[in-house]
Design goal:
Largest sheet: 2 strands, parallel
Radius of gyration: 16 Å
Number of strands: 4
Order of helices and strands: EHEHEHEHHH
Protein name: Exonuclease III-like protein
GO biological process, one term: DNA repair
Strand content: 15-25%
Keywords: Exonuclease, Hydrolase, Nuclease
Number of helices: 6
Distance between the termini: 19 Å
InterPro entries: AP_endonuclease_F1_BS, Endo/exonu/phosph_ase_sf, Endo/exonuclease/phosphatase, ExoIII-like
GO molecular function, one term: endonuclease activity
Oligomer: single chain
């Protein structure tokens, strides 16, 4: 399985670059960061035409301040035809997770991977 991370820094402005890269590299999974697009402006049709589907990862603390916004984002994603995966902290909130479990545990739980970590995972860098 080929997994790639792409800091797109505005998916609509760089959509031609993304589509050309997807066609050339054909990763199984692509994690896009820095989309800088409202959900209605996300180029879902172009992504699907390239053979991919969109999934949003939404993190929210296990309290009303985190659950409310997460529910809104999940609803917006569903309205836009995008699947949503909700991440929850292990200890109640992500700040507490970081303090007590450490930043590496928080990164593992959130799925955050730097480009270097992704390349190491894929066996492309030492």
């Amino acid at each position: 399985m080929k997994i790639a991370s792409f800091n797109i820094n505005n998916v609509n402005k760089r959509l031609p670059n993304l589509l050309s890269w997807l066609a050339a590299e054909r990763p199984d999974v692509v994690c896009l960061q820095e989309l800088k697009a409202e959900d209605q402006a996300f180029p879902l049709a172009a992504i699907e035409a390239a053979g991919y589907r969109a999934v949003w990862r939404i993190a929210g603390d296990a309290d009303p301040a985190g659950e409310g916004p997460a529910a809104i984002l999940i609803n917006r994603a569903q309205q836009a035809g995008i699947d949503a995966i909700t991440l929850s902290p292990r200890l109640g909130d992500f700040n507490q997770d970081q303090r007590l479990l450490g930043v590496d545990a928080l990164r593992a739980a959130s799925g955050f991977r730097s480009r270097q970590t992704t390349l190491r995972f894929m066996g492309l860098a030492a």
